[in-house]
Amino acid sequence: MSDPDEAPLPRGWYAYLPEGVKATASSEPSPRLREGAVLKLMAEDDVDVPLWVVGGLDSGLVFDDVADFIAFGASPELANDLAAWAEDRQRHGRRDESDLAALRLIERLNHHFDYRHEFLYRP
């Protein structure tokens, strides 16, 4: 039975839960991704590691920060490069240079994780 004081989670993806909404086991990102998961690189204000799971109950932002991504298995260099890309997108918006950098990151992500997941970027 749900808590009557707990607001229902509005439909959609959130970098942070909306005000007044408490995290539940079903609204928190999965601590481990299933092999074959599809992750999209999508810029979002105030998100350091903008990787989002697509589809299923675990849809949403995957990692809280760079340290969380490194703990998952990313190299510090890859995690920091991804955070630098996110910061650049937040400051300057979408540009041809950021799209090219994103495609390079996707290639690196897929290679780093041995293609166990599918990383995508579609501008």
Describe this structure in words.
The chain is α+β, with helices and mostly antiparallel strands. It has a domain at 38-120. The protein has helices spanning 66-72, 76-92, 96-112; strands spanning 38-41, 51-53, 60-61, 118-120. It has a four-stranded mixed sheet. A hairpin with a 6-residue loop joins strand 2 and strand 3 (60-61). Helix 1 (66-72) packs antiparallel against helix 2 (76-92) and helix 2 (76-92) runs antiparallel to helix 3 (96-112). It is globular. It starts with 37 loop residues before the first strand and ends with a strand.
Q: What is the secondary structure topology, with strand pairs?
A:
Elements: E1 38-41, E2 51-53, E3 60-61, H1 66-72, H2 76-92, H3 96-112, E4 118-120
Parallel strand pairs: 1-4
Antiparallel strand pairs: 1-2, 2-3
Helix pairs in contact: 1-2, 2-3
Mean pLDDT, all residues:
82
Bin the strand percentage.
5-15%
The stretches of 5 or more residues where confidence is low (pLDDT under 50) are 24-31
Q: What is the H/E string? A: EEEHHHE
Distance between the termini: 41 Å
- Can you give the helix content as a percent range? 25-40%
Instruction: Order the strands across the largest sheet as they lie in space.
Output: 3-2-1-4
Radius of gyration: 15 Å
Number of helices: 3
Largest sheet: 4 strands, mixed
Gross geometry: globular
Number of strands: 4
Structural class: alpha+beta
